[in-house]
Each structure stands twice: as C-alpha cells, then as structure tokens.
Amino acid sequence: MSPLTAKIAARQYALASQGLLRRRQALAVSPPAQPQACAGPRFVLEGKSFLNFSSNDYLGLSLEPALADALHLAAKRYGVGSGASPLVTGYSEAHQALEQHLCVLTGHEAALLFCSGFSANGALMKTLFDAQDTVLADKLVHASVIDGLRDSGATLKRFLHNSTEGAGRLLARHGAAALITESVFSMDGDIAPLAELSALCRQHGSWLIVDDAHGFGVLGEQGLGANALCQEADAAGVDVQVITFGKALGCQGAAVLGSRELIDFLVSNAREYIYSTALSPANAALALAASRFALDNPQLLAGLTENIGCFTRLCREAKVPLLASATAIQPVIIGDATKTMAVAQALRELGLWVGAIRPPTVPAGSARLRLTLSARHTRADIEFCVAALSQVLTQAGGPKS
Ligand code: PMP
C-alpha cells in the first residue's frame, strides 16, 4: 500500500469509528407537473418519496418553471458557458446586468460575481487581509470564512455568538480591521444584531462584513438582505455583503457587494476571480430572473413567513423543543451525534427528510436536526412534519436524553 493510500484508509477508518463518515445519495428531483398544484417539495430516493424539510430553497424557486424557461432562453442567447475567466473574455453584459441589479437592491456601489459563496468568501478574506491585520469573527461563522482567514495569515479573534458586548470588548482591547458575522446563521437560524454591530464598527473604525448567504432573498421586509435590514432600522449599514444565489434564489453563484474601491481592488487581486472560469452568463441571467421573480411574487416571502409561524406554533403545542429562531432554519438540538443520525433515520422511515448535522459542522455535543421551511410547504406538510417529529422524539426518549 502506498503511503498516501495508507493515510487515506487510516483517516477514513478514524471517521468511521466515530460514526462521522459522510456519504452522498443521488436523489430524483423533478418539477411538479402543474406549479399551482405543487404539493410541497419532495424527492425520490431508491423508489421512495420523501417530503423535503432540509433544502435551502426557501422560496421554492429551484423548481420554478418560469425560471427554467429563463435559463433556457439565456443559454440560447449567451451560450451555455462563459468560455474564459472574467478578465479574459468571460465577463459579459449578462454579468454586468446582474451586478447592477444587485447594487440597486442592496444599496452597495459595486458588485463582483463568483461561482459559489464558498469561493466568494475565500477570495474576499484572502485578498483583503494579511498578517498585519487583526479580524474579529462570530464563533459560528461559516467554514469558508474561517478557511479564507486562515489562508490570509490575519490574526483571528472570535467573539461569543451574537454578542455585541463580547465583540465590543475585543474591539476595545485589540482593535480590528473588520468584524465578520452572518446575517442569518446557517446552523442556528438566528439573526445577528446587525444594527448594533454596525454602530460598534463605526465607533472603532472597523469594517462590518456580513455573510448574507441565508439572508438575501428572505431577510427584511422585501427580502433584500443585511444592508437593507440595517437601512430599515436607520443603522449605519454593512460595508461588505456576500450573497449567494444557491439558497433563496434557488440557483447558483454568489456576489461580493461593497464600495467601488473594494470591488476594483478584488478585480485586480483576487486569485479566485482572476484565475477561474467566470460564472456562465446563462447562470448570471438566471440569478437576475430569480431575483426579479422573487420581487414580483411577494406572496412567496409572505407564504414562507406564514409557514415559519405555523411550524413554530405547532412545535410549541407538540412540545418539540426549538432554538430561538424566527427564520426558515429551525434546528432541534439532540446533542449526541449517533442519536441524531438515528432520529433522522426514523423520520426518513416515515417519509420525512430533515438534515442531520454533526460535528465538526456544529460544535461538539450540539448535533442536531436542521429543519428548513419553504414557501412551497403546505399546511398539511407542516402538520405531518411536526407530528412525525413529536412521535420520533418521544420514542427516542426526548431530544436531550
Ligand atoms: N456562507 C454560508 C453561511 C453558507 O451556509 C454557505 C453554504 N453552505 C456558504 C457561505 C457557501 O455558499 P455556496 O453554497 O454558494 O458555496
């Protein structure tokens, strides 16, 4: 056995012995025949149909027929690929139109598109910071931010999750080039105190950088995300906002939004941008169409809000313990990773698919079911989901036992 093969085998064995091996399953997903008759998001796995409470497709746009048509038209018009990196010939009027649209919506001066939120966060952190910088980040920020910061060489200080006080203490002690948080936290579903954090950053001359992956499309009155939410609260605002198109917009790609100087700086220096094939123009046109579709159909966001309210109320009545989340992300903390997998499996046997999230994605001892709501869930779907949760958690002896 070669040394590398032996290393891989040893690492996989170690993961397997802790019950932490991950595997993929190829699902059969297809749009409903009649969108109006759409009976909740479902997929088929090994011949069995599952009700999906684990997708980030909060507005149900990924299967929207009008957007499939928009993608088809855009592919006909622009081709199916960008053909080059952006600084060669990969940047087109479709990309520019999306950037301009996003700037108008979010109130930022300029935008830069990436193929994924992971690369957008990585590029931003690595390009903006270096070993001279100290950066503060919430304890629960996404892996892409942490990886990017580690690669940047900056000194990273973490503050207690959502604690403005904790962040303030660190800022007073160390100063910082920037403070980084998420708008809606991907695993807890709670919302950062953005207005307070923006005031704090202004006071200390630090930038506020917000990973708005789970906020853009659903956060704020019109779903315009982190900066708009600050503006609604008359707060100072967000200096840099990273949004992704793979969550509420139901498609793919991401954007960094900020000042013209920042975006020009990234264009000239961000290696992920310079040396990678640009997002396809068809995908840029699709993200623009999806954003417009969401704005033109406010009943989707209203329906999601209603579904969140219905789900949390039914869980309260059924004594299913939730975290304090008012968003589409609704975790049920189980604690033990093996028990979490067993509970998720029992739910699957009832036809309900929820995410089972274990360390290292979440802190040790906080393995959980991560349920997510969609505008497309029906009242019957939500009632079924809560009844199944209640039954399985009772059989398992309660979430924390
Ligand atoms: N930030 C957060 C908070 C996320 O949850 C994710 C996706 N899991 C990303 C960034 C990365 O976005 P993308 O899926 O577009 O790579």
UniProtKB/TrEMBL annotation:
GO terms for biological process: biotin biosynthetic process. Pfam families: Aminotran_1_2. SUPFAM superfamilies: PLP-dependent transferases. Its cofactor is pyridoxal 5'-phosphate. Pathway: Cofactor biosynthesis; biotin biosynthesis. Its EC number is 2.3.1.47. The keyword Signal does not apply. Residues 50-388 form the Aminotransferase class I/classII large domain. GO terms for molecular function: 8-amino-7-oxononanoate synthase activity; pyridoxal phosphate binding. Keywords: Biotin biosynthesis, Pyridoxal phosphate, Transferase. InterPro entries: Aminotrans_II_pyridoxalP_BS, Aminotransferase_I/II_large, AON_synthase_class-II, PyrdxlP-dep_Trfase, PyrdxlP-dep_Trfase_major, PyrdxlP-dep_Trfase_small. It catalyses: 6-carboxyhexanoyl-[ACP] + L-alanine + H(+) = (8S)-8-amino-7-oxononanoate + holo-[ACP] + CO2. Belongs to the class-II pyridoxal-phosphate-dependent aminotransferase family. BioF subfamily. Homodimer. This is 8-amino-7-oxononanoate synthase. It comes from Shewanella salipaludis. The lineage of its organism: Bacteria, Pseudomonadati, Pseudomonadota, Gammaproteobacteria, Alteromonadales.
